[in-house]
Amino acid sequence: MDTAPTTIFTAATVHAQAAAPVEAFAVTGERVLATGGLAELREAFPRARVCDFGDSTIVPGFNDAHIHIGLTAEDLLHLDLSHAAVSTVDDLLSVVRAEALRAGAGDWVRGARYDDVKTGAVTRRQLDAVAGNVPVIISHVAAHWGVANSAALAALGYHDDSQPPPGGDFGRDADGRLDGRLIERALLDVLLPATGRGESPIRPSTEDERLTGVRRAVERWHGAGLTSICDALASPADIALLRRARRTGDLTLRTGFLLAIDHYDRARELGVGSGFGDDHLRMVGVKGFVDGAIGGRTCLLSEPFTGTDDHGLQITGTADLAEQVARVHADGNRMGVHANGDAAIRVLLDVYESVAGNGQGLRHRIEHCSLVDDEILRRMKALDVIAVPFAGYPAYHGGALESWYGAERTGRMFAHRSFVDHGITVAGSSDYPCGPYEPLVGLQSMVTRRGIDDGALVGGRQCISAAEALEIYTIGSAAASGDEHRLGRLAPGFLADFAVLDRDPLVVEPDTIAETAVRHTYVGGSRVWTAPS
Asked: One matching Pfam family, short form (predicted)?
């Protein structure tokens, strides 16, 4: 920890995102006191300690406006089935088999980040073969569907004659029998406590166990240069976990959260709303849903997925959504509503427009806001809503996106160029565990729009500059949480959150931005992470 009353930080390059170039900045307590030339600051603060990072580059701390620390804390307690961990179906099944052999009475085998495109499709019968009577459920990387074996389906009360819950569906084989796929609410209602619906036979992890997951997540995310996040679907149990992590010193990330709409009535009774909390942990707004996922191919589209008659799913009915938004808006609280497909975004804009004249001055959010067109962009600008699109999806999914949506639509997806050109506030977001959490991967993705694995160009007309991408992951994300006056810049009065990088991501070759290494991460002027030597 840096404990001097005033410390001057400097490096070869400082991207303070201020009006004038900055060589150094002075920090007292948790805030930037002054910026300017190094000699100037030395003279102004003669007793200050100088911390010179030499040939490094300093940037404001990265801020992920839509990520899931509660979900990640849980996932990190279970099997990692990402393509990076299991590259083939045989590998995945081998890992599941080994875990099933270790399972005790009443235990479930759970895994996350399974990618059916990169690793290959996994079926109910394959899971039956390796796990027997041990219940298994694995969630897709998009987190909007998963695959269960027969023992898990039976334990959940799902059978061939079951009707899916509202906003959910079951996968079925050619004979109409359940094939193990649980889609949207059919999965979320039993797997995510934030949905707040019904009971699940799956033993919930204890708070002590989940705290271990929080520690692991925070360490990884600080190592990527993250200093602030917004947990985009928080339940009361998640909030209790985060409050405990704050008390124990394990939550060194500045953390905002969107409270799941199902829990809003209780928060309302307690008088808790947007802005409740402090600089380290606070409520940003309320989370709602319109449709499903991009990577999971369940979003609501005006035209069907390529080569199909499938238009996706609307998870929340329009009347229910309108009631939710009207109630939250009337209370003076911000909404962040998940809407991926163009049809879903239009539904949401209709609702936002219906409350826009009520004088609250609120800036609501559209989470993901993936597929837009000129009409949508004009309506968004008129409402002054904030877009929170995926930064890293072109890099992660590559050419698969075009196979699902076609070239014309991918040219309108994750439309960072269009948002910037239309003057729409846009935030940086990974949606981890659904996409890569590393902001520098997100920056490269926004700048190049190329898949990291296949090199495919995905909607090249949406490319932006590296400087614009950095602003999105700092200034834009701060605005999405109502923090634009204290985060996102290294300027007097702003919180002294920053990352020290081994090179300048704004001048390197665009296709190497993700190779930039984080050397140190600081929150409030104190070092919270240093790269292993």
From this structure: Amidohydro_3
